[in-house]
Specification:
about 55% helix, 2-enoyl-CoA Hydratase, Chain A, domain 1, single chain, 10 helices, alpha/beta, 10 strands, globular
Amino acid sequence: MIELIEDDGVAVLRMVGGKANTMSLEFCQTLTDRFVEAGRSSACAVVVTGTGRIFSAGVDLFRLLDGGQPYVREFLPTLSTMLTTVFSHPKPVVAAINGHAIAGGCVLACATDRRLMAREGGRIGLTELMVGVPFPAVAMEIMRCATAPQYFEDMIFSGATYEPNEAVVRGLINTIAEPVQLLERAIAVARTLAALPPPAFALTKRQTRQPALERLQHMGRSMDAAVEEIWSAPETFVRIREYAARTLHKA
């Protein structure tokens, strides 16, 4: 589900969770565990990437529909833990976005410190409201930190996805790379960040994330309770089923 290899001191996490690397309960738990392992290891930095033409298509909607309300109540905190773990990781974290990064896949990429995307590799964006679900608190804070302020609300409310050139302007990614060079360049960026004094880097990173982390501490729990209520509502499952039938051609 998540392969972990080391490339000369850089931990490379490759998502291999099926064709679309969709985020199930087990997927989120495993990715969290891998980031914890990387944090405790001698690796100086972390690179996360996908396989084929998809980085991640976000939450596994079919697993959500099958599991119903009990699954949602277990899944959402696990998803939030995974995103928080990546967002607050003390070591440099770089995303090598090999293909489509949609909804939760976009949020995961934006939780990293630097994002490289393959040229003509796919699209990236936030489709949560098109599905009919609100953002968990940590996902909203990640996007608030990552994206250009003037585009933030439009990206959230429009549900649009963007090609790499458009994504750079909006802050969703930092750099476009040729597909054959993507991972190599991402590892090089990770090493450049890791060359900074680690204690100073970790503290500075925490300072840049501090406003978001404080908002999560003060308001995250109550916000996520409201998020869970909507995700668990019967009418939401109807919307998800309609979205899946309309866009994924599955009932």
